[in-house]
Amino acid sequence: MSQLLASSITTDLLAWQIPPVEKVIRTVVVYLGIALIVRLAGKRLMAQMNSLDLVVVLLLSNVVQNAIIGDDNSLSGGLLGAAVLVAFNALLERLADTVPWVRWLLEGRPTELIHEGVVDEAALRRLGITELELLNAIHSQGADHTSEVLRARVEPGGNVTVLLKRADQAASYGDLQQAVATLQSSLDELQEGLERQSSGKSPST
Questions:
Q1: Which residues of 44-55 are buried (b: 16+ CB within 10 A; e: fewer)?
Q2: Which DSSP string corresponds to the chain?
Q3: Per-residue confidence (pLDDT) for residue 44, from 0 to 100
């Protein structure tokens, strides 16, 4: 009895319930399908997600689970699927690093949202980003208003990068030290000039 139970457990854990080649094909096809969906959904899905976007991301893995595993619930099948996912992802990353058009195909290009303080309304609509979400993004990077922004764009990875105008950038400790040193140098030169003028004057008779 115990031998039959051990044999049954071993079979359930290790026996292939679908051919390994089918498991590999299923995993790769689902990976490419999700990558295509995320690419078409735009950068917003990876950046400023609202509650509905979060629901989609959480349910996505459950929706495609059966497409990957099929009728195979074995341990060996699951490990094979995981290994294929990791290996295929690493392969695409390597290709993206060496072939520019692969990087563009997978991630796209940065999208500019603000230029010289002017918001690109068409870009916001295309990405599905509201003005409130944009303001929250620039506030988190030190800007109080879009007029202070020289350039803001959504990177391929979904991050919003903001470059402030020079006059609106926060001064660092090094900038303050340099300003104080320049002011002190100017005062020293002015004082020396006044002293030379004073010593050069002859006593009035």
A1: bbbbbeeeebee
A2: -HHHHHHHHHHHHHS-SS-HHHHHHHHHHHHHHHHHHHHHH-GGGGSS--HHHHHHHHHHHHHHHHHHHTT---HHHHHHHHHHHHHHHHHHHHHHHH-HHHHHHHH---EEEEETTEE-HHHHHHHT--HHHHHHHHHTTT-SSGGGEEEEEE-TTS-EEEEE-GGGSPPPHHHHHHHHHHHHHHHHHHHHHHHHHHHHSPPP-
A3: 58
Amino acid sitting at position 145: H
Q: What was the pLDDT predicted at 86?
A: 92
Q: Is the pTM of this model over 0.85?
A: no
Positions of the chain with pLDDT under 50: 205
Contact of 43 with 156, CB cutoff 8 Å:
yes
Q: What is the pLDDT of residues 31-85, one digit of tens each?
A: 998 888 877 776 655 555 667 777 777 788 788 888 887 777 778 888 888 899 9
Amino acid at 9: I
Residues facing 164 on adjacent strands: 149
Say if CB 23 and CB 30 are below 8 A apart.
Answer: no
Residues found in the chain: 205
Q: Tell me, what's the pLDDT at 45? A: 56
CA-wise closest residue to 38 among 102, 120, 105: 105
